[in-house]
Amino acid sequence: MSGFRLDQGGRVDRSRSISFSFDGVTYQGFAGDTLASALLANGVLLFGRSFKYHRPRGLLGAGSEEPNALVSVSRGPGRHTPNLRATAVEVYEGLTAKSQNRWPSLKTDLGAINDRLGMFLPAGFYNKTFMWPRSFWDKLYEPAIRRMAGLGEAPTQEDPDHYGAVYAHCDLLIVGAGPAGIDAALEASGTTKRVILIDEQDEPGGGALDDPALWSWLKESLKDLAAAPNVTVLSRTTAFGYYHDNFIGAVERLTDHQAELCSGPREKLWRIRAGEVILAQGAIERPLVFAGNDVPGVMLASAARTFLQRYGVVVGKSVALMAAHDSGWRDAFAHARAGVNVAAIIDVRATVDAELLADAEALGIAVRLAHSVTDVHGRLGVKGITVSPNGGSAESRIACDALLMAGGWTPSVHLWSHSKGSLAWDDALGAYVPDQPNEKVRCVGACSGKWNFGSGLVIDTLPTPRDQSRIKAFVDFQNDVTAKDIHLAVREGFKSIEHIKRYTTTGMATDQGKTSNLNGLQIASQALGRHVTEVGLTTFRPPYTPQTFGALAGHAQGDLFQPTRKTCIDGWAEEHGAVFELVAQWRRARYFPQGGEDMHAAVNRECRAVRSAVGIFDASTLGKIEVVGPDAAEFLNRMYTNPWKALEPGRCRYGLLLREDGFITDDGVSARLAPDRFHLTTTTGGAARVLNMMEDYLQTEWPELDVWLTSTTEQWAVIALQGPMARKVLEPLVEGIDLSPEMFPHMAIREGTICGVPTRLFRVSFTGELGFEINVPAAYGRALWERLMSAGAALGITPYGTEAMHVLRAEKGFIIVGQDTDGTVTPNDAGLDWAVGKKKPDFVGKRSLARPDIAAAGRKQLVGLLTDDPAVVLEEGAQIVADPAQAIPMTMIGHVTSSYWSEALGRSIALAMVEGGRQRMGEMLYVPMPDRVLRVRVSGMVFYDPEGVRLNV
Amino acid sequence: MSEALARTDPVSGLAFAGQGVTLSLAGPMARFSLRTRQPEALEQLLGIELPRKIGTSHDGAACLGPDEWLLRAPAGTTLAMGTGLPLAITEVSERSVCLIAEGARAAEVLAAGCPLDLDRFAVGRATRTVFETVEIVLLRTGDMRFEVEVWRSFAPWLSMALESAARPLR
Prior knowledge:
Chain A is α+β, with helices and mostly antiparallel strands. Among the domains of chain A are: 13-132 and 141-148, Roll (Ubiquitin-like (UB roll)); 164-280, FAD/NAD(P)-binding domain, CATH 3.50.50; 468-540, BFD-like [2Fe-2S]-binding domain (Arc Repressor Mutant, subunit A, Orthogonal Bundle), CATH 1.10.10.1100; 857-953, Aminomethyltransferase beta-barrel domains (Elongation Factor Tu (Ef-tu), domain 3), CATH 2.40.30.110. Helices cover 22% and strands 28% of the residues of chain A. In chain A, a hairpin with a 4-residue loop joins β24 and β25 (431-434). Chain B is mostly beta strands. Chain B has two domains: 14-28 and 95-166, Probable tRNA modification gtpase trme, domain 1 (Gyrase A, domain 2, 2-Layer Sandwich), CATH 3.30.1360.120; 29-91, CATH 3.30.70. Chain B contains three helices and eleven strands, in the order βββαβββββαβββα. Chain B has helices at 39-46, 106-110, 155-166; strands at residues 14-18, 21-25, 29-36, 57-58, 61-65, 68-74, 87-91, 96-102, 126-131, 134-142, 145-151. In chain B, β5 and β6 (68-74) form a beta hairpin. The longest helix of chain B is centred in the last third of the chain and has 12 residues, at 155-166. The relative contact order of chain B is 0.21. The interface between A and B is large, with 58 and 56 residues.
């Protein structure tokens, strides 16, 4: 033996030496080592500082259950991963890892003062202490506590890696490739079932990796599985969550173990739908609860055996065992057989199996039954232990440099619990075991509770002659919760484990209490004097172990984060310098600045062009629904507030759509193409919602109607031509449609061709000017736009964006649903009573309009506002008061919903919701702003061309 | 009348080729949404045979729901509109584009974002489904060939997503 590495044994590749660094010191390990095993081999026992008391901590476990040894790994800019378990980090050439939660260094940590102040830091300390003054919390308490108590630092740079994702389907998913999982896979390998076997470690084998006697079996079995075409084996893959209908989320780690960064995905998210699931997650050994059980060098007996037999590393040169369970004895024997001095076996039980005693004697190991460890000496590492007979006060000291704990086994029921399978308490195991499944799932091996680890005593804390209230016996190592804290919680009146858990934070760390939950439960049960099953059970939730955000996001990052929908004319807008805005998922041109114009200059120019010549606008994003069938008119008549049955083919109508509650949810102009065919338009953002709502009514309320709805939003490109010259631009390009005002009046639709492609031509206006909306099949939208631009060049055709569109419609008092309405606005509130069919027997929302508080006076109503100073443009959202001299908080009677500079009027205009607004015409109201109070006069909503003469030309 | 208007497609013709998969854009075609509770009436009107089993296709017509078919036909095809009959025919030729994934890895590339069990999705099957958050109609037109109907504004995103899934692991 050189240092702590045995001369032989283990599964590491001794021909491949690997150089890595921890806290700036360079060490050597072997291929196949974890960071934990490699550091142990170098005699490093100290891995981190604890969360609250900053106590020095070493390894407790050897796998993903490890609560103490959390490290950060950095591998270049943006590639910083905190809170990795050293026991699950594979070493590679150049690995750079750091310990966490210590300052200035791991050995000398100033935060450790908390340990000596421990008696002042009981459970609930932070909640109780930092209550007052409230204002200190954000600036002082929270930042200070965060600095003191914390995990690793979150990465701050953008993650340069990318992540894959896949859906997979199988007939049988096996989670855990230990002996039980491998057996299940072998059994299924001869069938036609599609089998996936996944395992979180770097090689399959689970517990078999710790037992050289099983290695040849393992090798043969894996060879058989590799040869089976129906079996897929995934290593380095953690099944982190089990969801409804046998849907399992798993993350495969692809590059984190490789020395060379490669350009493939770092991790891959597997979304697996399985016909049947077999859980073979194994079991985790429980620590024992006694003073000093967290000193570096005190660890689970099974973990020590893993280091010994899998990695060829001893955790000490002279080890002692504190056992409450047979399995620890065999772990100690394995050490003795490997040449490690076993200083003593202490067992809390008075009697143990005679065979164990005989083996101990044969190996020359001193045994003390009915004894317990009552103290551990050493701070940065074990120097010895004190043991006492149970119930007695005699103390004797045993020299050793490592102490193994064997507290029995806890079946890993994490995924079982995610799947909502029920659990049953097993008194012999002192643990919950799977009972009734809720999905097509079963447990095999140790996680089912049926693995024979030998027998043991279930015990909450080890007997000690010392004052229990003065010792730190840890239950939850990661969150620094002691047995004393749980007793305190019980004394303070907490009776349910759910409350005890939240008060003490036991089991609430990143390890979800894999090693602590049952000890916490036993202690609470004992303190309450009630059986464990009456104290309760906390529920495991996904993820089984922490996963990266990158893996969960999959390829949803950067350009793939979510689709940005673009119209067929978007490319032209981009080439012509448009500034864009997002409307729902759509990207829309907001304005087209020219020659260094700012937004206001551009919008003013665009508005002038529409009012004086002609503007061209991409309205393709408007939602469109084709409503077809013999009952189409009847259906629309039931959906919309206004009458539709008498609308003649070839004519359009403004439709107002309410929800069942009587509030406006959408609006749009729709056309009747034929007796049984309508072309509906909706708002851009409302398209999907309106279609869903209509389908809902159709399928659930009126299934007898012969009418069908088809989204045609993307079938049509829509180009709005608006302005006095619009007809002139259009006339030479259109065939089969008489554009004269007599034959094609306002609010009409005609079908024909434009530049040789079919069109549905609407004569409608959202600007108050002569206007057309040209619908053509989307593939031709861009070419038609360009044709119109050149056809209208001599007439001053000007592209305008959504901002100018907003100004132009506000000048006419046209509302925008979602801007001037907020889901609590009725047609009457919005001044749209004219669009409600008074004689209609019913329509969606009609009944709600008769509710007393909907019909009551004094509701907010949409009105116009004109500022005293015409140059001042109000802020949208600004609150309105009647009396600016009143005390704060003032009574607010309304708010501004839309506000713009109107180039046509040479002044500002605004729309606002104001209590009893239409009764306040001409009244002076006030808009208090941070620096001044603005005077505004209530006006009508139509600011420009109230007679509408510009429309009918 | 000046020259005819040119078509603009939302994605370029060939998105990706290599590593066992080719992603390309199908040429223009006519598409119709057919709806009725009486498929016989539709069949009689159009002179075609409609598949009755949801998720199957026949001769260009895919049965997407109990009363819904997507009919794909050569570009320029026109249909009688069946005015007055208890059915609805709506032209949606330009609503979507069709991306084709072809090759030994085609199913694998689609599985990156499509939750269907593609092993069990036989040639001739057609269904409305999703690729991540984007709605698609997926058709298997060959053992190693899938066609993906996607609304045109989602096509660039889908094309990128498929390409990202197809990109070789260097």
